[in-house]
Amino acid sequence: MFDYTVETTKTVDEAIQALEQTLSNHKFGVLWKLDIPTKLMEKGIALEQDFRVLEVCNPDVAKKVLTRNQKGGYFLPCKIVVYQSEETLKTHIGLLRPTTLMEMTEDEQLKTLAEDAEQSMIQAIDEAK
């Protein structure tokens, strides 16, 4: 599976706030937040669903990836999404698994780095939910 996704009873804003704290506890920072409905509305397109994308990074891991294989940088930073499901109306927090992406490099050392980063982000997501 390319993702890890959990459901929470928190609002999207509450989930993001909790996630920022738990990510920080795991040495990840939020570099950028994209509010997709707001961005689309700037282009005149309405999206009723609340959907946010967070780009997150652990600087130590990023340095190790780039030092090992610069093409690993194609997959940096990591993405976490927070959105309200149209079906359940509950908030979901999801991660695009770094291991899935780094497998494409066919570099075993990058795969190991991705496994460690992925486990930390999964723990942060679980703690935030």
Automatic annotation (TrEMBL):
<dbReference type="InterPro" id="IPR016796">
    <property type="entry name" value="UCP021774"/>
</dbReference>
<dbReference type="InterPro" id="IPR005180">
    <property type="entry name" value="DUF302"/>
</dbReference>
<dbReference type="InterPro" id="IPR035923">
    <property type="entry name" value="TT1751-like_sf"/>
</dbReference>
<protein>
    <submittedName>
        <fullName>Uncharacterized conserved protein, DUF302 family</fullName>
    </submittedName>
</protein>
<dbReference type="Pfam" id="PF03625">
    <property type="entry name" value="DUF302"/>
</dbReference>
<feature type="domain" description="DUF302">
    <location>
        <begin position="39"/>
        <end position="98"/>
    </location>
</feature>
